[in-house]
Amino acid sequence: MQVIVDVGNSRSKIALFHDKKWSMFSFTHSELDRKALEKIIQSHSMPSSAIIASVAEYDSQIDELLRSIAPLFKFDSSLKIPIPLNYRTPLTLGNDRLANACALFDRYTGDAAVAIDCGTCIKFDMVDASGKYLGGSISPGIKMRFSVLSEQTAQLPNLEIDSKVQLIGDSTVKSIQSGVLNGVISEIDGMIQQYESLFPGIKKVLTGGDAELLAGKLKSSIFVAPNLTMLGLKVILDHNLKLS
User: Fold this and answer.
1) How many domains does the chain have?
2) Is 241 among the domain residues?
3) Cα end-to-end span (Å), the chain
4) Domain ends where: 24, 44, 74?
5) Same domain, 65 and 142
């Protein structure tokens, strides 16, 4: 069994991969500690290897626990990845973006592909047909857009998304909700159109916490893989196990 730990901007996830089956567990940052991980492991088989990717602080005893029972890889700039990078600032490249790119490479070998990660930020990450990572784009995610509208204005409230909001809002609340949701949809559709014009036949994967919310609202036909990042981390773990 392999253990994948991803400490993200908003939540932390643990995935257990055993043969072709896998289980997923999600936590707030405060919920993820050594005891939580021990409980999960005790209800499954003993890990054979593990990887941790983190953009936020977490309980250091998680590292100690995993190191005591299996080879542990920490996802940092020293860890090997199975794809070449065409990116001018690789040390600033987020672990989640790299993991998504590696998952694309593994799933669509020989094809150009783009991951669209809709979480805290909306991130496009592109791998060409040769398997090279080309880069992409980053813009604010849905929750961030609501927060910025509230924080940067005197009277606008901080709201939650309404998935059924109409295009034309008939109140300030509905106008904000329409602007955020329809703005994100138009942005993603427009970006996809540009990618398709540059790379005809490109494979497209939607992932992240808001993927399922947005998938049915996009004009483009798109494959939805909410846990693409975890799959990419497994690809990176397997790659480093082969090299070790």
Assistant:
1) 2
2) no
3) 18
4) 74
5) no
Tokens for 208, please give them. Answer: 């992240």
Amino acid at 10: S
* Residue 96 among the catalytic residues: yes
Phi, psi of 34 (to 5 degrees): -60, -40
Q: Which of 44, 164, 62, 95 is nearest to 103 (CA)?
A: 95
DSSP conformation letters of 93-144: --HHHHHHHHHHHHHSTTS-EEEEEESSEEEEEEE-TTS-EEEEEEEE-HHH
Burial grade of 151 (CB within 10 A; 0-12, 13-18, 19 or more) = exposed
CATH number at residue 52: 3.30.420.40
Q: Find the catalytic residue in 59, 63, 76, 96.
A: 96
Range of the structural domain that residue 34 is part of: 2-74
pLDDT tens digits for the chain (244 residues)?
999 999 988 889 999 998 878 899 999 888 888 999 999 988 888 899 999 999 888 888 999 999 999 999 999 888 999 999 999 999 999 999 999 999 999 999 999 999 999 999 999 999 999 999 999 999 999 999 999 999 999 999 999 999 999 999 999 999 999 999 999 999 999 999 999 999 999 999 999 999 999 999 999 889 999 999 999 999 999 999 999 8
